[in-house]
Amino acid sequence: MCGFSESDVADIRLAAGEALSNAVEHGRSARSSGFSVVCRFEHDKIAIEIRDNGRGFNVDRREAGPIEERTRGFGMGLMYRLMDDVNYDHNGTCVRLCRRLEDPRATS
Asked: Of 33, 42, 49, 74, whose CB is crowded by the most CB atoms within 10 A?
């Protein structure tokens, strides 16, 4: 668990699961339907990169509007809330999720 608490691991799993779900649902193209996942833990930070072969999307035009009226579009919001950094590259076909390990001395 790289020093993360059970609660942190649950958050990371949920965020990564949302990113994977998006890759599976939207990551197909005429040339390939696969996706890749790379995880690294360095310098007290876990980084998860998920790439797919879909058309991508305009990251600036994420689903907006009141949450009460949405039927979809919660996954990206969850990723932003649960992770320290969320970045998209390649027109949204690559997402990087990062979560820093909290220094236990900082909360004492």
From this structure: 49
Range with the largest mean pLDDT of 9-23, 29-43, 68-82:
9-23
Token pair, residue 39, equals: 């995880």
* Amino acid occupying residue 30: A
Sheet (strand 85-89) strand order: 35-42, 45-52, 94-100, 85-89
DSSP at 69 = G
15, 97 Cβ separation under 8 angstroms: yes
What predicted TM-score, i.e. pTM, was given to this entire model? 0.78
Mind listing the pLDDT tens digit for each residue in 45-85? 999 999 988 877 766 655 544 455 445 567 888 999 999 99
Q: What is the DSSP letter of 39?
A: E
105 to 3, 8, 89, 101: CA distances (angstroms): 13, 17, 34, 12
Residue 38 has which token pair? 């790379």
